[in-house]
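Note to self: the last two entries modelled the partners one at a time, which told us nothing about the interface. This time every component goes in together.
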Amino acid sequence: MKIYRCVSCAEATLVPPAICSKCMHDEFELGYGSTQGVLISFTTIRRAPAGINLTSPYHVCVVEMTDGLRVTGVLEFGDSEPELGQSVYELRQDGMQIHFSSSPNH
Amino acid sequence: MSRVFVAGIGSTTFGKHDGTSIEHLAVKAAAFAIKDAQVDRSDIGALYLGNFVSGPLNGKEVLAGIVADRLGLNNIPCTKVEGACASGGIAFRHAYLAVSSGSVDAAIAIGVETMTHAKTPQTTAALNCAMDHEYDSPSGLTFPGLFGLAWRMHSQRYGTTRDEVAAVVLKNKRNGLRNPLAQMGAEITIDQICSSAMICDPIQLYDCCPTSDGAAAVVVISERLMRQLGPFRKVPFVEALSSIQTRGSSRIAGHRDLVSFDATVSAAAMALQSAALSPAQIDLVELHDCFSIAEIIDSEDLGLVPRGQGGKWVMEGRTAVDGDLAINPSGGLLAKGHPVGATGVAQVYEVVKQLRHEHPNQVQNARTGMTHNLGGTGVACTVSIFRGIDT
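The predicted structure of the combined assembly is written out below.
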């Protein structure tokens, strides 16, 4: 996934920030973060909020990436229901919407 | 710093108030509180109004000044405060600060919301304004979804069961039956809860608080004014020992741990320290059970129940009105209702009724009480502590 790294303190963020919340520097370089992470938790949204480009039911997850960045994303199940703590894999990024798969063979 | 006393409280019922304007509800609750306080309107030096969604759902703003106008208050500063579902708690804290700082002898905090006239997608969109739109909204997350994430983790880490979480609903619905202000008190069964519609796994319909209309108000006064009014009063004063506001992460992925809200942990620690009390000295708490699992997490975050034991405590009846620590004897948000901007002030109303020993669902010998109000994804929190006193 695309990440923005502060050129002063190397703090990484997903959204291009106005300033770095850690050191207040205002220059960032675009880079790429890890594509694998650990599933912290997930839930299934049965009724989508207005304006979202997803069809319910869909699964939302919190993932801790290998490089330490924690992100909220959309989870696509493999063959079985995933377990917390298992590895998940980045599938694609649509703007700020990051899709993960719970299967390594996605 | 002046000591702060709650002199008067007022509330409307929570539920559907079809055809009643938001101003009208706020004015009703405020008028009850002013009469209950037996202060003169000219004594009130500041007004704080907690409200979250009057803009998107009613097309109305500057409510604080409008309500003061209808109440016939003086030319005083009138401020609307917003902190999502913690708006009411923040309004109370500002009134507390205005008095404790010595800048006024009396202040009024009002909380109000009307929601039931709106269609569900409109309400969901309005409440979702409190999400971090840059980080969390793109994933399609909702507020029940946040607590679904937390529940799954709590179950995995501590073994919290569906029946334990359902016990929160059973208790609060039962408490609500004994509160005439409550919207949805009921005697229900575990089967009803577990067969209700799935909302955001594992959260089902009965695990969610309703949308509500309602208002509550509280008049706080200085020690000087309390001494002046004391001889003429029949009802006891309640002292506000502390009122703390904190901030947590605005991003869901920014929380250190999804089964705990940092803002609650720090607010409770500071409020207890400021009140010079230990958790064991708290007799009852009105806490932010927007979802059933939230009550379990909050009770642990507040330091009132050991970490991971929240489910067991409710199952064993230790948080019932006659238990070791009464949690949400009002029925809480689950049964009393959750007119979002009103909730934080209404919690103070409930605790003060308990400490005056005039609550219809009375906690026996209640001396100290706590309120806990949480906003957004845990980004805003208030905790306040109260003690009953005799004049």
